[in-house]
Amino acid sequence: MSPDRKLLFLLVHGIGPQCKELHVKFLESVKEAVRKHLGPDKAGLMDRLEMLRADWSGIFKNQEDGWLKALFPKYDDRKDKAKRTRKFGWIAASILLVAAIGPSIAIYVFEALHRKGMWFPHSTTGQAVCYLLVWLAGALLTAVVLGLAWKYFLGRRLPWGDVWSLGRDFEAHSASDIILYQSEKPRQKIQEVVLTALDPFLAPQEGSNRPGCEEGQIIPIFLAGHSLGTVVIYDMLLGARTESWVCMSKIGGNVSAVKREIASLQAQSETRDELPPSDAIGKRLDFLRRVDNANVQLTVVGMATFGSPISLFMFRKPELASRRNLWALAHQPEFVKGVWGKVKWSWKNFWHASDFVAHRLEPLFNEGYDGPGGKFVEDVRIWRRVKGPITAHSCYWEEERVIDQIGRQVAECLKAL
Fold first, then answer.
1. Burial class, 337, CB count within 10 angstroms (exposed 0-12 / middle 13-18 / buried 19+)
2. Residue pLDDT, tens place only, 121-165
3. What is the pTM of this model?
4. Following CA atoms 287, 288, 293, 298 in sequence, which dihedral angle do they give, to the nearest 10 degrees?
5. Which terminus of the chain, N or C, has fewer Cβ atoms within 10 Å?
6. Other C-beta atoms within 10 Å of 33: how many?
7. Alpha-carbon distance 28 to 26, whole Å?
């Protein structure tokens, strides 16, 4: 590895508000894991590692807040929100109170009957069994009463609009990010944040032709992403340079989708000589040139995805969803041409069975792959005990197995470059 060249490690997060401290701690933990796997003899390679974080969590905040205030003014009011929360709390507390009183009443009646002469076992075990059976009967009767009350009275009269409105914040500030990413302009804003994180390490690029594939002309980068962040890095820095985005074109043989769009927009701007200049076209061209510049200078040498919906996003593209050998459309050109020598491609996809966002990737990518390890992407299941889908989706940040395996991947890249 050239002593002046860095290995970039880029982390991109997913939807919703983010905890910067958690991300920084994760990056520090990964760095320590890299140092451990390098060992004392190779510790000097740590100077070549640059840890980057692209934080796009705040770019839609004004739009999201404005959306809530415009459509649901009361839902975004703190006092009204507190009032609805208290109302929901009273409802839940009342149901729990009734559920607790039912078995207690059953035991009270049973003891009253016993005092009036009803048979009662003399042994301690027998008495315990009787109390348990009475408690269960009371609980069952309470459940039946609550069920009937819910069906014929409570269920129709509870303020469901107020209860479910508590989820508007999640819808506006988290789920909406996925919807926004489907549109070109919001997607561009997210990707611009990623490009800004990379800018200090990229040289200005004149023209749109990729340099030769000699090792010294390309900057290696390791990508790490969580949730929607995995889709962002795949779209920008893996898929954008590969066969899936390339086709024969009149503008110069095999060219990427980015270059095709640049050529198309340039042609449009030339036909507007007699018209006022279009800011939209100019801004889009500037962005596409930045993306092209990044793809010209960077090559992905490894990936780690956790809580990833990449497979789900693939089903937006029927021509890809039916394939099982997507590795052929995502394999970096430098690896195909053997430029990187000892560097072995490695992509680990960490997923938890309780995480509804996370999907496996092996079934879509690995068929026919004959590279190192026999797998283009390796699914790694996490067995951490969690309370539910939400905690499962966020458990990766502090999972030792995730951190250690990513550290091993990066250390192997540093040794081989």
1. exposed
2. 777 777 788 878 888 888 888 888 878 877 777 666 666 666 556
3. 0.75
4. 100
5. N
6. 21
7. 5
In the numeric block, which tokens belong to residue 136? 């269960």
Kindly calculate the radius of gyration of the chain based on its CA atoms and give it in whole angstroms. 29
β-bridge mates for residue 381, sequence order: 351
Q: Tell me how far CA of residue 212 lies from CA of 209, 296, 385, in angstroms.
A: 9, 10, 49
How far does CA 38 lie from the centroid of its chain?
28
Determine what percent of the chain is predicted with pLDDT higher than 70.
Answer: 75
Helix (H, G, I), strand (E, B) or coil at 358: coil
Q: Is the CB of residue 368 less than 8 Å from the CB of residue 399?
A: no
Pair type for strands 219-226 and 346-352: unpaired
Tokens found for residue 18: 């983010």
Amino acid at 71: L
pLDDT tens per residue across span 295-323: 888 889 999 999 999 988 887 777 777 78
Output 203 or 31, whichever has higher pLDDT.
Answer: 31
Q: Which two tokens stand for residue 239?
A: 């898929």
The SS3 assignment for 350 reads strand
Share of the chain above pLDDT 90, in %: 32
Q: pLDDT for 370-380, tens place per residue?
A: 877 789 999 99
DSSP per-residue codes, 300-334: EEEEEEES--HHHHHTTSHHHHT-S-THHHH--HH
What's the helix, strand, coil split of the chain in %, to 5?
60, 10, 25
CA distance 275 to 279: 12
Question: Using a CB cutoff of 8 Å and minimum separation of 24, what contacts does 205-214 make?
Answer: 205/289, 205/292, 205/293, 205/296, 205/297, 208/259, 208/262, 208/289, 208/292, 208/296, 210/295, 210/296, 211/296, 211/297, 213/333, 213/334, 213/337, 213/339, 214/339
pLDDT surpassing 50 at residue 226: yes
**Hey, is 295 helix, strand or coil?**
helix
Please tell me what DSSP assigns to residue 211. P
Cα gap 382→29, rounded to integer Å: 18
